Amino acid sequence: MIHFCEWLEKNPWIMAIDSSVVISLILEILHYSGFFLLVGAMVIVDLRVMGLAARRRTPIEVANQLFPWMWTGLCMVLLSGFFMFAGDAPDFYQAITFRIKILVVLVAIAFGLIVRHYVPRWGELPSIPFGAKIVACLSLVLWIGAILISVEVPAISGVG
Amino acid sequence: MFHFFMAIAKWLQNTWWALDISGSTWAYPFVQMTHFTGLSLWVGTNLALDLRLLGIGSKRQTASQLSSALFAWNWTGLLIAITGGFMLFSSAATKYIPNPAFEIKLGILVPVGILWHIFVQWHARAREQADVVSPFGKFAGLLELLLWFSVITAAVSIPNFDVH
User: Fold this and answer.
1) Is the pTM of this model over 0.95?
2) Which residue of B has its CA nearest to A150?
3) Which of A32, A71, A140, A157 to mutate to test the interface with B (most CBs of B within 10 A)?
4) How confident is the model at residue A159 (pLDDT cuts 50, 70, 90)?
């Protein structure tokens, strides 16, 4: 994996992108914007499933409205994140905080997919099951944890 | 004027909450997390409306319906972001005041962005009830998108102008 990272870092396309201040800035803006869109949408859906907000609307209404934005944000994050990672791939790969961040984000996405898959069923029940609320709570904690770890990656590891 | 702001910054930096935040290993990241969580709601819902006005992404709802649906989340997010942001600012106020990126972000871009957002929200709810957004609505959404991208640019540039 480290060899792949070293190859990626030395790729001429990646080096050209990484050396451009304008492109690097655009990537950073896209990454932040995508993250805000993704996490903002998930936070609202999770709070609705937990029954803590937007109770005038059904969970499926909230989910149908916001999941497209979640996917849009996720695409922005993954695309920009790849290019940001590639420019310093070996350093990012070796940074423990970055690995923890990716792990937390992947688990958060998995929980988001679980919520997406089951929310139509949960919405048809007389009340949201307790287990569903636990899943939504975990999803919320994971996304907020992802924010915490993301702001700590450059501070602790010195990368990014 | 600068000396006046620096005097307030010095006072703020010595308040109990600012000293707690700057002296604690976990308080600062927690406050940053609060600021970013608020921003996720505020900027995320702004972006959703702006993209809808531009005709990009989900068209399940009209811009008017989307604006109404996201209204409470939008302003709750700003409140949380301001709370976290104020705490962050307090902990290192004398470093932020002379920072040109911070001055541009908070002195110009954020106030302009919030004022324009109030107008965009009103316009979307009052005038964009059809599936197809008017040309002015698209312009309004694009301008707001550019304003918030500028705020993010200024925010990520703050560390590049750190005064030591």
Assistant:
1) no
2) B33
3) A32
4) low
